[in-house]
Predict the 3D structure of the following.
Amino acid sequence: MKDVPISYQEAREQGQQVLMDTLLRLATNVIVNEGAAALSMRKLAQMAGCSTTVLYNLFGAKNGIIDALFVDGFRRLETAHAALPVSADPLQRILDLCLAYRQVALMYPTHYAIMFGNAVPDYTPSDASKQFALKAMQPLQEAVAAAMEATALNNPSAAEMAMMVWSVAHGFVSLELAAMFPHPERTEAMYVAALKRILR
Amino acid sequence: MKDVPISYQEAREQGQQVLMDTLLRLATNVIVNEGAAALSMRKLAQMAGCSTTVLYNLFGAKNGIIDALFVDGFRRLETAHAALPVSADPLQRILDLCLAYRQVALMYPTHYAIMFGNAVPDYTPSDASKQFALKAMQPLQEAVAAAMEATALNNPSAAEMAMMVWSVAHGFVSLELAAMFPHPERTEAMYVAALKRILR
DNA sequence: TTTATATAATAACACTGTTATTTAATGCGC
DNA sequence: GCGCATTAAATAACAGTGTTATTATATAAA
């Protein structure tokens, strides 16, 4: 299988890595099938056939595992974005990205909840993980920068229009509370601008 | 103080009502100052000077308390909306409502997290509470119905534009996951329409 | 081979929501 | 006013949580 001898240190580190991967895969199975609340250290340890001490050695704490799932969720987003054929129409490009965004969110709602919805109490993403999250949203940013031109639009009903406005409000505020905006002093102006835009 | 005699039954019910109110006020203090994760049944019982059994008699379970806080949050939203002077400009009216929305969310982030952010694991609002939530958003719906005309807009930067698009996407998806949309089959069309609108 | 070190397992601590059991207090008929 | 039935509250327990101190066990170095 492998004829290149590796040092004991390397072997141990490699073993740790694959162990971490399998543990994260097990954790993913749990949160996908049973929700984030069903993920406990004891259960995960039991599934892996080890003690909880190993988990604490590898991940520091439960939040370390959640943090790994956090970046895993954004990695799925990144992958979905990367798999998209780049449309010639800039507006279509943005819509494609947002549709992929929604698709990933609906396919992995628990990941999405961990990413934005406070699925785990007392968890906040680390700075490195938050940076990874912003990096995963970069294609959208680039697409918007490449687009910047408009298309036609049809008139929705008042009720649907209200839901759109609510969506903007809620989305904006949620991201703000999650500290996803790089320039907090610009947030309110952007908020108003977005609302004006959605209102035709 | 009160010269109208009330039956024992009424007195007990009245006592229960004020007890529930004070308990909810205590619970609000806890989640505002220490977050939703810090709210435990034992702590709340200890603060009130009673046993946890009383809490279960009054609210059924912890989710009953959370549910009361859920409608309490939307009641604050309702109050803030009601306190607004009704602007003559329909677009300004909508902006006022959304700004009040944001203000309430930022002032009571833990309530907001309970309302939308899954702050408490395994809690989902009851049907009655969800209906109350939609009722609290009715002024926005009415304002949009009354408006339906446009205003001018200035051009934001690409980065800010991207954040706006992200906000729409996230807000939409979050509300969808929270089952706040009355017509699920229309959601995707509304989603695309909102995105097109935000893109000018 | 013996010693030092790092790793994993066991068991415990301080919590959590919830509930069964016991205890106290209350309202009602006589 | 007294005894009984019902209701409510307190105690304590159950099953679970994240985390950690302690113990034992392998592994690596001398």
Summary: The two ends of chain A are 63 Å apart (CA to CA). Residues 1-9, 149-154 of chain A have pLDDT under 50 and may be disordered.
